[in-house]
Amino acid sequence: MLLVFRNIILVVAIFLVANVFGQGIPEDRYAEEADRAKSLLRKAVDYYQENGDRAFAAFSRQGAFIEDELYVYVIDTQGIMLASGGPSANLIGRDVSGALNDHLNKGFKAALALPESDEIHYADYRWLNWQGGGEERKRVFYQRVDDKIFSVGYYIQRSSIEEAKTLLSYVSGAVDEAPQQTFERINELDAAFLRDDLYAFVIDRDTQRFVAHGYNMRLVSSDFRKLHSADNHPIGQQILDASDSDGSGSITYLWPNPVTRKNEQKVTLFETRKNYIVAVGYYLGGVKDD
Asked: For 43-65, what is the mean pLDDT?
């Protein structure tokens, strides 16, 4: 029952976020995924228009409407889950809105009240990636047809350079204000210093050792000069040299992505704050299996 309720809340989050942020164009680096999702959505809508409610069975089983991590799900304007080819299949036939409080129902119903049109809307939310086993950010495209909303989404597994810069600025400010407390919070994996695949690490410039790491605690207190990339480049020494000469900068190297669990090209942004080097990196993809 707890799992079902949790899934209901996540489903509704789709429409709550859509209601708040409205329309827009997804970022270019996910253009291929967006095209695939919208193509599958159009395919599902066309199939429904040709076959009516018989289409729901096709959406809810392995077959033409599941493409890798992409799948179709359908909710009617009364809040009933009609079809799903993904983990929300256990909600089929359930009144999603019936488990929500008044506040959540208000946003949910506002989204369900969108007029029927050929327009494709989109929104972001968090959902269980049934391939990776963890919750990840997801972008969903949806369209109302008759009294039903058809949806297809893909996972947003890599944060942007803008998000990395924002986190770096936040961590640097925290280090300036309360360094030791900040190091403890980073090492305790405080959510304020973790944002999906983004995390911070901090180096003491005097000792040249890690004092904090938001992903791999085993690196804390280790010699930063000995840090090498996944393909054995001396990235620790390179960052130390660059911070001494320029004070800030970036470096690109191969490193494990904690979300995809693959070695990927990573760009780490860093800046010096008194006796410390503060760093945050974002992933470019370019996946290589271990």
From this structure: 94
